[in-house]
Predict the structure.
Amino acid sequence: MSAIWINHANRIAEFMNANNELQAHLYLEQLMLFPVDVQDKIIEDISQLTHCNCDGIANIIGHYTIFELK
C-alpha cells in the first residue's frame, strides 16, 4: 500500500468517522475526479467495513482506481 493511498484514506476516514459523507464525496471528487456513481460506491463500501481503518479504505480506493488492461 503506498503512502499516498494511506494519506488519502486517513482523510476520508476522518470524514466518515465524523458522519460527514458530503465532505467525503467532495474530497473524492477533487482528489481523483471520480464520477458521482463511483463516489457513492466507494462511500458505501467504506461504510460496510467492519473496522473503518486506513488500510481498508485505501484498498477500496485502490480497487476503484485500477484500470483494466485489454
Q: What stands out?
A: Residues 3-17 form the longest helix (15 residues). Residues 19 and 33 are 22 Å apart (CA to CA).
